[in-house]
Write a structure and sequence with these properties.
Length: 340
Amino acid sequence: MMHNFFRGIRLKSIAFFNNKGGVGKTTLLCNLAASLSIQQKKKVLVLDADPQCNASAYLLPDKQLESILLDNGHQSIDSFYEPVRKGMGYSDDIPTIFRSERFEVDIIVGDPKLSIREDLLATDWAATRNGEPRGFQTTFALRELIGRLQGYDYVLVDMGPSLGALNRSVLLGVDSFVMPLSVDIFSMMAVSNILKSFKNWRASLEGALARFIEEEGQPYKSRGVDVAWDLKFAGYVMQQYTAKKKEGVRQAVDAFENIIAKQRAELEELCGFFGCQSEDVNLGEVPTLSSVVPLSQQAHAPIFSLGAKDGIVGSHYNRVEEAGGFYHSIAAKFSQRIDG
C-alpha cells in the first residue's frame, strides 16, 4: 500500500521535473491531467512554467495559442512578476485561465518571456539567502500565485529541463514533484544532479529563514503560513526501456542492466533525502507510443481519446487503448499517493 504524505483537503500542487530533456515529461503531464479530469472527475489546472510553452502548445489549438501569445490583453504568467520586480509587491490579478476542450483541463499558458525572469530570480535569490524580505517575495512568487488558484483538486506545473533560478522558484512553490525518467546514463546523472541541488537549496533556505527571524523577529510567511523546506517527492514514471524476453519474462538488454542498477541506487538516495520508500514512489511506466504521440499533438487531444477523425487507423487503435491502460493506471497511483 502506498504511503500518503499529503493529507488534507486543500488544493495540491505538483511539478513535473527532470533536468534532462527527452524523457516525455510534457506528454506525461498532459495525458495524466486528462486522465485525472476525464476518468476521475478531478478539477485540474495546468500551469505552464516552461518558457518553451510545450504544454500550452499541446493542450491548445495552434490558432488559439497564437492569438493568446500575440494578444497583450491577457494577463500572462510572466506579468505576475512585474510588480515584484518594481518593488510594488504582488499583483492583485492572477494570470488568465483558458480551457483545453479535448483534455478537459484548465491552463495558464506559458510565456517565452519567463526565460528573462531568470536574472531577477537569480539576483533576488542572493537577497533571499541574506534573509531580506524583498528576496523572499520574489523567490516565493509562484507559491503566492498557486495559493490563489482555488477551486481545483490539482495544479500540475510543467517546467523546463534545468536547475536554474526559475525552476528553483517553482519547486519551492509547490507541494511535491513527479520525476519522469528514462533508462540511460544521462537520466541517471540527472537524478544525482537534482539531489545535489536540492541539498544546497534546502541548506540555503533554512539558513535564510533563520536570518530572517533574527532580523524581523518572526518567521517569514507566505499566504499566512510559515515558510519552510517542505517539498515532497510524489513519485517517478519510467519510460519503457528496450527489452528482450527470457522464458516469456521481459528483461532489460545487457547494455541497460548496469544503468538500471545504478539508477535504482540513485533513486534510493533521493528517497532517503525525502524520507520516503522507493516502492511507494514508483507510479508506473509508459511505452514509447511513438506512432500515436504526433497524432495526439496534432489533434491537441489525449492519446487515449484519439479516434478516426484524428487519423487513427488499423493498429493505431491498439496503441490508443494501450495508452489508456497505462495513463489511467498511473493516474490511479498518483491520486492515491497524493490524496491517500
